[in-house]
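Schema walk-through. Below, the input block comes first and the output block second. Nothing else is stored per chain. Lengths vary across the set, and this one has 220 residues.
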Amino acid sequence: MTFCLKSKIIKPEKDIKIKNAIILLHGYGGDGNDISMLSLNWKRHLPNTVFICPNGHETCFVNPSGYQWFDLSKEDPEYILEESKKAENILNQFISEIKNEFNLENNRVCLSGFSQGCMMSINIGLNSKENYNCIVGFSGKIIDQKYLKDKINNKSNILLIHGDADEIVSPNYMLEAKDFFIRNNVKIETHLIKNCGHHIPIEASSIALNYILKKINNSQ
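--- output ---
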């Protein structure tokens, strides 16, 4: 099947049945190949899992060799929110295609993303009528709290990981998100990685993997 977003797909070894999907959303200016690096270690521990890493639907404004989920050329919160809504619609269609292709329900799908991809994972993850297996975000934030509060339709479990030295997206956004989710009765775990900037170190990858393993095993 051809999906609405061009994607790097890492399937299990031959003849191993696909029981789970992890959808990995890259950051601003990145692509599916970048974020797929997480699967190199994860797939050894998740043999029945397909990893799907789509490219954003738009060419990145500041890095034409990469992609974006929404434009950041204007420092206008309303503009950014409207652009992110466009990405939501496309990603919801994409996820529907993935579920149909691999015959999976929401509870077998984990949404994960880095930076801008984390922001999109939160919005589309909590907007669904059914819980996802979990949402795992690295170095992101909530785009607009009022918008998200009005759109929450489920109580998917969330893990947020952030570097304490992140110079692009302040770690304070993780603390704000944690407070928001607690106030809205969404189960949230957070980890602050010491001496870490705006990237995903091995420690963060390992924490995320252990969290996903726990959630997938609990849903079987």
